[in-house]
């Protein structure tokens, strides 16, 4: 039994020496001496060349893939390109179109009714300052009815002014001032989109206290 154990120990020792010799040979650590003969059981430490060392190659960093499979380095380059001054800015055509349409709606022209009301409010203020102080107008609340036409070119033409109670001086003042400085309105179109003359009425009241 002792002989079998000793035999196995000798085989294991020979195998380890052979493996160490192989490692040293291929790793380039043995001294370059062609006349040296290496035998089993020799001390290998005396035959290792410590003057030269094989350079250790640095481990290359592997690119890290994001969850969507895109190289993280490539994503960083793309991000830096997008933030670089002078780089073309990418905008959404749909959002630009919607913003333009909204701006056009907000900047839409006022219609004829809005324009005429603003003008008549201003006219009432002027009449109170310049006309009502006249001795030809008594202290009273006057209801005025204005008949006018919108011509095919948008010009306002007053055809008649009636007041209640009647006051010819006040009526003439209203008519003259509207004819003088009334705003030009948009022409009214018929079913074939051609301008046509239309008649309109406007009424308001004014009080002399």
Provide a count of the helices: 5
**Helical residue percent band:** 40-55%
| CATH domain class of the domain at 112-207 | Alpha Beta
The CATH topology of the domain at 112-207 is Fusion Protein Consisting Of Minor Coat Protein, Glycine Rich Linker, Tola, And A His Tag, Chain: A, Domain 2
Backbone shape: rod-shaped
Series of secondary-structure elements, N-terminal to C-terminal: HHHHEEHEEE
Gyration radius, in Å: 53 Å
Widest sheet: strand ordering: 2-1-5
What's the short story on this structure?
This protein has helices at 2-27, 72-83, 93-106, 112-130, 168-181; strands at 141-150, 156-164, 188-189, 195-196, 198-207.
Question: What report would you give on this structure?
Answer:
With 209 residues, the chain is an alpha+beta fold. Among the domains are: 46 residues, no CATH class; 96 residues, Fusion Protein Consisting Of Minor Coat Protein, Glycine Rich Linker, Tola, And A His Tag, Chain: A, Domain 2 (2-Layer Sandwich), CATH 3.30.1150. 41% of the residues lie in helices and 16% in strands. The chain contains 5 helices and 5 strands; from the N terminus they run H-H-H-H-E-E-H-E-E-E. The strands form 2 sheets. A 3-stranded antiparallel sheet has the order 2-1-5, with helices on one face. Strands 3-4 form a two-stranded antiparallel sheet. A hairpin with a 5-residue loop joins strand 3 and strand 4. The chain is rod-shaped, with a radius of gyration of 53 Å. The termini are far apart. About 6% of the residues have low confidence.
């Amino acid at each position: 039994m002792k002989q079998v154990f000793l035999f196995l120990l000798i085989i294991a020792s020979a195998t380890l020496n052979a493996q160490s010799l192989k490692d040293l040979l291929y790793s380039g650590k043995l001294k370059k001496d062609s006349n040296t003969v290496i035998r089993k059981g020799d001390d290998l430490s005396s035959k290792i060349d410590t003057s030269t060392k094989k350079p250790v190659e640095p481990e290359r960093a592997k690119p890290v893939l994001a969850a969507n499979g895109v190289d993280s380095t490539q994503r960083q380059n793309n991000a830096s390109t997008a933030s670089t001054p002078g780089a073309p800015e990418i905008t959404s055509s749909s959002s630009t179109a919607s913003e333009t349409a909204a701006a056009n709606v907000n900047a839409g022209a006022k219609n004829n009714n809005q324009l005429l009301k603003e003008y008549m409010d201003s006219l009432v203020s002027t009449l109170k300052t310049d006309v009502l102080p006249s001795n030809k107008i008594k202290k009273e609340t006057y209801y005025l009815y204005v008949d006018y036409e919108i011509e095919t070119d948008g010009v306002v033409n007053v055809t008649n002014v009636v007041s209640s109670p009647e006051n010819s001086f006040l009526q003439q003042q209203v008519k003259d001032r509207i004819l003088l400085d009334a705003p030009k309105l948009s022409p009214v179109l018929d079913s074939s989109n051609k301008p046509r003359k239309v008649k309109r009425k406007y009424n308001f009241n004014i009080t002399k206290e």
